[in-house]
Task: structure prediction
Amino acid sequence: MNRRIAALHLARRFPDFDSLAAHMGKRPDTLRKELTGVDGYKWGVDDEELLISLCLAAKVPNHLAPVTAAAVNAGALLIPLPPDQGANGPTFKCLADAAHEFGLFMASAAESLSDGKVSLTELREVERQFGELVSKGQTCVASMCAMHEAGKPAYLRGSVVARSHE
Result:
């Protein structure tokens, strides 16, 4: 499935198509033509971004379908973050960094395996990438531990007993 078709299916799931078109600053027939690929009508990434935002606000399921389709078609992986990052933004940045590192590790491993042999240089590169991935993961866990500790009552902070029984 391509991203335009995924966007078409997403728009059809929106509670009121005419309202969606109005929010996008388009007439319903124009939006339909753009989404169905009628000659002379273009569906752009700015339109797609707005559609995704409107569908997210309306709680339409699978609102990331168009960008997920693009990622899959490019041989990539899209990992959505939870919607409300609030004060926990740095932790979500850790998750994003770890996901990026995972992608680099997977690309390195796949490239090494592509010819059916693994050279010493390729093995070292995969090991290095894996080390970076583990490091990013440990940073995320440390950040989450800090958040956990901060949420405890003062008399329990730093308590090994309290930590092991939660």
About this structure: Residues 3-73 form one domain. Helices lie at 3-13, 17-23, 28-36, 45-57, 65-73, 89-113, 120-151, 160-164. Residues 161-166 have pLDDT under 50 and may be disordered.
